[in-house]
Design goal:
mainly alpha, 2 helices
Length: about 70
């Protein structure tokens, strides 16, 4: 594996770890058992936006990598 390929693999791993963290935060949000505050809803929306960004970046990285 070349240096560039190693960097792509590391970036993909970092993005997957971020997805896991977002999933954990979203699971907590969904299970909180009470109405969400305005701030909590805004944070949730930001996490959803970030997930979209991550998915796009992963698709681009994977199209450039032989996985």
């Amino acid at each position: 594996m070349g240096l560039e390929s190693d960097a792509k693999t590391a970036r993909i791993a970092a993005l997957n770890a971020e997805i896991d963290a977002i999933h954990s935060a979203n699971t907590f949000y969904w299970r909180q058992g009470r109405a969400a505050t305005r701030e909590a809803r805004a944070e949730y929306r930001r996490r959803l936006d970030r997930l979209g960004e991550i998915r796009k970046e992963l698709a681009k990285l994977r199209s450039l990598t032989d996985f």
